């Protein structure tokens, strides 16, 4: 039969169960009912002068030997022209790593898969099939063969860290985002096989429950139970990540620890140890310590929230006394800084002292106006 050479070289025909025309045929043998997403007769899509083949779909983790040969290329020129044709495939799995996944028969054009496939290692193979004459020249236009590896759920979620560390201020509003934990699943992205469901396994201290975990995102939020650092300054959570929608299966489940530190806010005012203090100095002395005002503050020891700020509210109009905070002990140190006849003449010289919990936030302002503690040191000379 006379044909134009151009047509003969351009047509790449796929042979399924019929054998028409001429050219390099590809027979896809392994995809029966394998991938329902493919069109019903997927193996041929004519695009102008070339035939594009639909991908071969092979499932990972399976013995595929019964599906061999998975594909076959064939050139009619062998019969028509009495040529001796040699078939060849190149690509990943044959001439590129991972080697040895596929083998082919150079006389029949059959392609076999030799190994159990791992989608997580190689999700896709692109092979090229050739029909060569005795001198190694293409007698047909080479044909692309795409092999898609179908996923199975053979990976469990793995946490990206053994221990996640976060923090949140005490008194935070309900549903405040505290932190996010993260796990990964190596199965096919955006499918149920790689979906992860998170869960809090345990919380220490357990009651009342102060955190909840978004099952899908891994985000940890506060509940409506108010956090109080002065009660519990940290929490330890054990969390788990399960495959899919979190169904309980016999597969191993990875766990991780979450440590959440409760950050202090200044929600306690200094409380004085003694409401009345007495101090004594000998006359004609200056720059001597008269008394120390001891206070307690339940906020974080050593922090600005804990340190008291002492000021004279009244009684020091003459400027005889100075008061400052001992940052180590949080005591107010009252010092006589100048001598004067008025002071000396009076045996009792009461000094009402006012100190305020002072810091930048608005909460501190509240304390200054409404929650100041007072003590009255009486000084005798
Ligand atoms: Ca998985
Ligand atoms: Ca998989
Ligand atoms: Ca405080
Ligand atoms: Ca506090």
Automatic annotation (TrEMBL):
It is found in: Cell junction, Desmosome; Cell membrane. InterPro entries: Cadherin-domain_protein (IPR050971), Cadherin-like_dom (IPR002126), Cadherin-like_sf (IPR015919), Cadherin_CS (IPR020894). One of its GO terms (cellular component) is desmosome. This is Desmoglein 2. PROSITE patterns: CADHERIN_1 (PS00232), CADHERIN_2 (PS50268). Its main location: other. Residues 70-159, 160-272 form the Cadherin domain. Residues 1-23 form the signal peptide. Keywords: Calcium, Cell adhesion, Cell junction, Cell membrane, Glycoprotein, Membrane, Metal-binding, Repeat, Signal, Transmembrane, Transmembrane helix. One of its GO terms (molecular function) is calcium ion binding. The lineage of its organism: Eukaryota, Metazoa, Chordata, Craniata, Vertebrata. It comes from Homo sapiens. GO terms for biological process: homophilic cell adhesion via plasma membrane adhesion molecules. SUPFAM superfamilies: Cadherin-like (SSF49313).
